[in-house]
Amino acid sequence: MERSIGDRNILDKFCTEFCSIVEKHAKYIIVSGFVAIAAGRTRATEDIDMIVERMSKKTFNKLHHDLVAHGFVCMQSDVADELFDDYLTKKANVRYTYKDKHVPEMEVKFAKDELDMLQLQSRIKLPSTGLDVWFGIIEMNIAFKEDYLKSDKDIEDARHLRIVFDVDERKINECKKIIRMYR
Prior knowledge:
The protein is an alpha+beta fold. It is built from eight helices and seven strands; from the N terminus they run H-E-H-E-H-E-H-E-E-H-E-E-H-H-H. The mean pLDDT is 94.
């Protein structure tokens, strides 16, 4: 089964709807490949990566039930306590999709260290994407892709972000140092 999708309309709608619900409960950022896609890079993907601030089990339960009430399901479990205890607090991710659809997916993980917290504190909106969602800063996304992830796809994403945005090379190098410190 082909799992990758490249239709920006589907991804944009999914991302916007999901983020609008999460924003009622917690700070979040969208990171990695979807940042490049939202900035106009054409490539297929099946998931969008989200980092959310750590939250209490009670807050997560409210978030999970709000997502379910709006037509999302979690692939690992329907039980919020199980998702919280067995995945999120153990630095694993959980994946949400629309009910009855396998793609796209939102891969949600709690901020796991100071690096993730720094990204949440410096989050930005990118009007040029046409999306009203919070992203990790471009320089950090580039640094992660070039210095940590390093796959061909990630290098191409970073190259695209460098072309589209006016980036600060000094800031990218600082981000790379921070990444090396924490990862």
